[in-house]
Amino acid sequence: MKAYRKIHDFKQPRVLPFWITNKSYYRWMSVIIAISTILAFIVVLISTYLDIPFSQVKTSDFKLNEVAPTDFIVSRNITYVDVKATKAARDAIDRTVPPIFELNNEVKGDSLGMFNTFISILTGYASKDAAPEAVMKEIQIKLPRAAHFFDKNEITALLSIVKRNKEVIESTGIILEEVMDTGIFHRLEEMVARNPELFSEEKIDFWRNDNQHEEIPLDKALSLGNLQDWIENRTKKLPLNEVNKSLVILLVLSFAEENAFYNRVKTEENKKRAREQVKPVMLELAKNYTIVRKGDIVTEEALEKIQAHGVSDISLNISNILATVFIIIIVLSLAITLFSRGIIQIRLRKNRILMLAGIFILSLILITLLSKIPFNSTWLSFSVWFPLCSIALVVSLLIGPNVGLIFSLIISVTLLLMTKMNVNAFVFSFLTALAGCVVSLKIRKRIDIIIAGLVLSLYSSFVLITIGFIYNFDINELFWALLWGVFNGFLYGGILSTGLLTLLEHILNAATRFRLLELSDLNAPTFKRMLNFAPGTYNHSILMANLAEIACTEIGANALLARVGAYYHDIGKLDQPGYFIENQTSDNVHDDLKPSLSVAVIKSHVKLGVEKAKELKLPQEVIDIIAQHHGKGLISYFYHRAMDENNNIKISPDDYRYPGERPKSKEAAVVMLSDIVEAASRTLKRPTVSKLEKLIWKIIMDKFTTDELSDCNLTLNELEIIKNSFVRILTGHFHTRIEYPKVKENLR
Asked: Would you list the domain boundaries of the chain?
């Protein structure tokens, strides 16, 4: 436990991002992504232009009211604007916009000012008992606009009222102000007669100020034509006799003026905004539709369609281009993020990236072609034809289920975007792909793929039936749901996956479970030779494979890959087995060699092992384990021996290190640790559990503190698990037996 607590005193060595430490890998990935982007852009853009982009028939050959020189057939589905229908729709909305009238408060002030001046004149002359002629003369001088409204008798009556009945004057002022606040519309009857279309809705948009406006019915609008009627209705409530009421009406009519004026600019702006909100009326021309036949007269409607087809042929749809760009940006951003090493926990190799890019481009092409298949059903999508479950299953088996799941998600999102948000296609494809990734975890033999296909067929049928119930499909369609589910699940997930996996496994030389099982056969010629010429290495590899397999199983790594890597890790020793201690039966040949020469021989087995692995065409993952199983470790025995022979003169330790690279995967790191632990455990005399624990933990911590484990993502908890598994296996290997008594010779 003390050793375990000391672990926390160490900091995990800082690991630089893989794009810094692996620049060539980053360049490769950038090139592949760039090429994939260009190809994907072309495929998605062409998906709406599958046919000939330019019509072989010239639109200029067709003239209005002339004979068509040839048939004009639509080469692909196009959408165009119906100019006439659009204009009609906009004209209709134009007529619904009421005219705008604005209240002018200055006119109200002028009107009330004139009235008050008029009353002042009357009051002044009434106090002097002046003659009506003098009053009229004064009014003509000061109020020329109001003078013609009054004659001598009316002035006489008003002079009398000013003296005796001021209620008439007060009522007149109140009604006059009320009239001006209500608003008198300028030449309203004349405008209605001249522009009836402006008042087709029979209402007016009346603005009293910049923030207050209301729509009033046309028949309720006040004008000079109906002003007298409005005033008469208003005076009926006054407690005056008929003579006085008539004087009130006269005064209000005399001083009331039009103060609501038509605003042409604002009205036109409103109409323009309303027209702009009307979307163009779109018409569609289906592929192979004949607009006009040879010998027919070209009508105006036919000519409009021909011209629309011609414009569509020679122009690019900017919305399609932008949509394509956005689709590519979304998908690539998703791919770059999800395929980062921090998420998928593995480093994708060049051939794997090329494979994924190729499958992605082929998927785009297939989606484009399948989307043209007409499906009349509301619940059945063309995605039943798309083998995404097979793609997910194959990618999961070739690379890993995490990559298969992420890749399926990327293709599903692409399918969703390219099919204009066809949710049914996305749901079915992604769910069946998810099932493909899940069943890949249970596949151990090739026959299991066929069984997985049967499981996927049932699952696909269930998904289709569920979608059908959501859309209330007819129960008679249940048979078709089952049929399509079997087709997609068994034929794609089972049969197609078997063929694709075999092909891609051979092309990529992938370390699939099936390939690794073949390589784990100890009856292979390589192991036969190892058993005969390097039996110590053979036995060391067998025990080491057991250690690595159990440890990888317990930390969730690829146990079969670790076992195969352990089997082959020392094949570089086959050419010179006698130079390695486990194969020596007599004297040690290194006793007669200089340490520098001995180290050269020892180090060479890694390089020779990689060369032999390539000759055997082993998967790259196995080759990496061979190349990394010693890392950059120091060959300490010969280093210290060289120091002793040179009287402790300083010697560069780099000359006595393995030339390989540090383990890049958990499997390679476990193989490295199991190699050292298996060899070191043989040096223990009477090994016990405590001795093994101490030795193994010291070896692990030495590798940890010298940064040998800095690139493999092993955690401290996983190192503890690995240690415990090593102790358990080696304790069983070095178990003690009871000492049997010697058997006496038979006595006759």
From this structure: 2-47+318-510, 100-271, 515-733
